[in-house]
């Protein structure tokens, strides 16, 4: 009864002016006549069908009626089976076919408008007791599906590409698909969402909860259809889809109800027409269905609005470039991002001449076209500049997807996200880094200059103090001799500090020189122990040499730098020890070609909270200058840098109150490739006797 009343309501709109439509060259206007379009129609309610009176009905005919009214066309309908309709469209016997999902094969035969009329999907039906959660559950079964439909093509493609083992049972109509499953001629049936929901109540079948082949539905046009006519369809469709009061949303509410019942036979309609109670019940159902459709429509609108708002908030938009027509479409998000109004028409010339930055236009275009020519499916991310409507320059990060048809690129889809702030931040960081590097170079140059200027008078002070100490004889009393000793001690400490600063600045400025030679580890350690022995005696600390005797351990390294490292480690082990403490020095070969030298003490140890600061320049291990022995916090930092520059490493283990163990690894054999790029090697390897 509902179908009958809706068909009668639509009849005057769909058939108005149909008798005056010519059969040949339908869009060529004759004098005093409207342009005519011949449309194919098949039974697929509620989207498109002929009702009991033979009148076109459903969502697509009603939308097409609204389009023809706006454009001044007259539409005639030609009934045909689905597959036959497509054959007629290809041959030009009809001009358009509603309710068609684009596929690569169809896009090669027909033309499609760009604004979808409806988005659709399909359900899988099975007999009760069979639960289908994925396509693996249909393995070995028979699957009924509408012949030559997009679902039919997708099933065949999946079976071939994924090796799925099921038999396809083609049917002529969707209701025959459900009948085949109910009668046992098929195990599963695939039916599009709208018709499935309309027919499923008439069959004792179970509907799966997973969605198959979601797709958008368009108008398909005969190959010879002018592009201007199709563009006019898109223009009117876009206008209706942005107007909640338009005929499009009225038709959507009327026809796309998830609980719609199938059309009833004529005898049932006439028999029920006498029952006023059923009429009232039907009216109530219509009200409920309209409310439900209104809710679904509102949800769809809200979803689209949320997507637009999300793009605006994220400062991102998308675009589509049809390589066949050079047509360009932008999303609302991209229009808003660049300051354009929603109704602004965008074409390729405008993009290349006004929107792309002139310095980026050519290479960006070549980037996309070369990607398409080489068969790339995706491109990016890539950064380039766009100009907004007000002329402001914006940096965007673009990602591209390219669609192909028969090996030829046909469409480019891309997203653009505004990253102007990020680019400016990165440039600011780069400038700050460059400024810091310049300041560091200036500091290193200053330190190197001042270190040389300080070392000259210090050497004079130390030299004259030593002369006074050696030649004083009995002319100076004990107190005066002690003061000379203080001068010598302080001068040597200051000279060591200046030397450390000079070495540190040499490393930082990239001018460290390494003199490689054969170095006897045991002999070098003995010399270092002798140099710190007086310091150890003053602190009542015993130094134990635990290196193995016998064959000497030889390293190919810089002997002077190696000695600097050992003296730094031994000095710290003595300075941070306790009265009566011990320092042990020992070593071993490692499995990766290094010799590891250990310096272990029984001193105060390093708190865990300060262990990450041990190798920082100008950081003391103990805040008390008396405990630190007058050090400036350079020694350990310098020792580690020297070890690294010579291809080695330096580390430690420590526990507060239990002492510390520092270790240094240096390679047994000289490897120039392992050295830092800042290192300059100026002498060949020498043996222990100094021979090259």
Question: How does this structure look, described?
Answer:
This protein is α+β, with helices and mostly antiparallel strands and 692 residues long. Helices cover 44% and strands 23% of the residues. Helix 9 crosses helix 11. The radius of gyration is 44 Å and the shape is elongated. The relative contact order is 0.06.
Notable characteristics:
single chain; 692 residues; alpha+beta; eight-stranded mixed β-sheet; five-stranded antiparallel β-sheet; 20 helices; 26 strands; 44% helix; 23% strand; elongated; disordered N terminus; disordered C terminus
**Helix/strand/pairing class, anyone?**
alpha+beta
> How many H/I helical runs?
20
The tally of strands reads 26
Supply Rg: 44 Å
Task: Give the distance, in angstroms, between the N- and C-terminal Cα atoms.
Answer: 110 Å
Helix and strand arrangement:
Blueprint lengths: L1 H14 L20 E6 L7 E2 L5 E2 L1 H13 L2 E6 L2 H10 L4 E5 L3 H6 L1 E2 L5 E9 L15 E5 L3 H13 L4 E5 L2 H9 L5 E5 H7 L6 E2 L4 E10 L5 H15 L5 H9 L10 H8 L2 H39 L1 E7 L5 E3 L1 H6 L10 H8 L5 H13 L4 E10 L5 E13 L2 E11 L1 H52 L6 H31 L3 E4 L1 E4 H18 L3 E4 L8 E4 L1 H17 L6 E8 L4 E8 L23 H4 L6 H11 L3 E7 L3 E9 L11 E5 L9
Parallel strand pairs: 1-4, 8-9, 8-10, 18-26, 20-22
Antiparallel strand pairs: 2-3, 5-12, 6-12, 7-10, 7-11, 7-12, 13-14, 13-17, 15-16, 16-17, 19-21, 22-23, 23-25, 24-25
Helix pairs in contact: 2-9, 9-11, 15-16, 16-20, 17-18, 18-20
